[in-house]
Write a structure and sequence with these properties.
- By secondary structure, this protein is an alpha+beta fold.
- It folds into two domains: 40-119, Ubiquitin-like (UB roll); 121-195, DNA polymerase, domain 1 (Orthogonal Bundle).
- The protein has helices spanning 7-26, 64-71, 127-134, 144-157, 163-169, 180-195, and strands spanning 43-49, 52-58, 90-93, 96-99, 112-114.
- A five-stranded mixed β-sheet has the order 2-1-5-3-4, sandwiched between helices.
- β1 and β2 form a beta hairpin.
- The relative contact order is 0.13.
- Mean pLDDT is 86; it is low at 10-33.
- It binds FE2/S2 (inorganic) cluster (FES) (2 copies).
């Protein structure tokens, strides 16, 4: 099964989801003892996060962001809307940006999950984090970890992105403070830092 869902694909599939929800609502009630009725049970799961194998017990309905924050204590990933609209929860799944609020923890098993903590180099900031600091690419900071991860994912695809590629790469990450000009400049600077091996 394809892991997670790209942010763009999620937005375009919302309409289909409404239809599905209506069908589910009309379906007969689930019998006791079925997998759905047992949703409260916990299952053991091994996640590969920031290069480490992490064992965790979750309910099948647990989202990836819940597992990351509440189960593993990695609170750098922020919950915003928690419905696939803002991008605050962005992490990398096998190097690609994904909304952690729109993915079950179970779906991430077997993938390499990277959170903002995983970009650190020991006590030093990673290139994207450093560029955000140098360009004051945040105000309240709530969107910042998601923006950083989206830039990291973008630079793994395009080492020297154009402004248009940066805009498109960050289109799924909203900043209510409107710090976009600084964020775009930081993305450019991060590309330069990465290009020089930092
Ligand atoms: S918290 Fe996940 S998209 Fe807003
Ligand atoms: S810095 Fe406040 S939401 Fe982006």
């Amino acid at each position: 099964m394809k892991r997670g869902m790209s942010r763009r694909r999620f937005m375009t599939s919302v309409g289909a989801g409404v239809t599905t929800a209506a069908a589910v609502a009309a379906a007969p009630r689930v019998a006791r003892g079925s997998p759905v009725a047992e949703a409260g049970r916990r299952v053991d799961l091994v996640l590969q996060v920031n290069g480490s194998r992490r064992r965790i017990a979750v309910e099948p309905r647990t989202t990836l962001i819940e597992a990351i924050r509440d189960g593993l204590g990695l609170t750098g990933t922020k919950p915003g809307c928690e419905r696939g609209e803002c991008g605050a929860c962005t992490v990398l799944i096998d190097g690609r940006p994904r909304y952690a609020c729109m993915m079950l923890a179970l779906e991430a098993e077997g993938a390499e999950v990277t959170t903002v903590e995983g970009l650190m180099r020991g006590e030093a900031l990673g290139a994207v984090q450093q560029a955000f600091v140098e360009h004051d690419a945040f105000q309240c900071g709530y969107c910042t970890s998601g923006q950083v991860m989206a830039v990291e994912g973008l630079l793994r695809q395009h080492a020297d992105p154009s402004l248009e590629q940066i805009r498109q790469g960050l289109a799924g990450n909203l900043c209510r403070c409107g710090a976009y000009a600084h964020i775009f400049a930081a993305a450019k600077k991060a590309a330069t830092l990465k290009g020089t091996g930092r």
